[in-house]
Automatic annotation (TrEMBL):
Highest classification ranks of the organism: Eukaryota, Metazoa, Chordata, Craniata, Vertebrata
Protein name in the entry: Beta-defensin
Range of residues in the leader sequence: 1-20
Keyword Signal: yes
Stored InterPro entries: Beta-defensin, Beta_defensin_dom
Entry keyword set: Antibiotic, Antimicrobial, Defensin, Disulfide bond, Secreted, Signal
Amino acid sequence: MKRILLVLTVSLLLAQVTQARHCWKKLGRCRTTCKDSEVFYLLCNDETKCCVNPKHVPVKTRSLPPTGSLETSAVW
């Protein structure tokens, strides 16, 4: 009976320790190193990397100035 209790306790502890925490709206996982198919995007609360599939990482686009503001006002 003591062995069963010991095995159950150790199993529950391991299950708690090995749970991966989610990040980036549950699209990423907090890991020390990312898998080959993942990219590092943010840091998690415990300073591990938030590893995300590249298709979920937002791409920051540069905004262009309005077309009317490109006039040359200075004469060389």
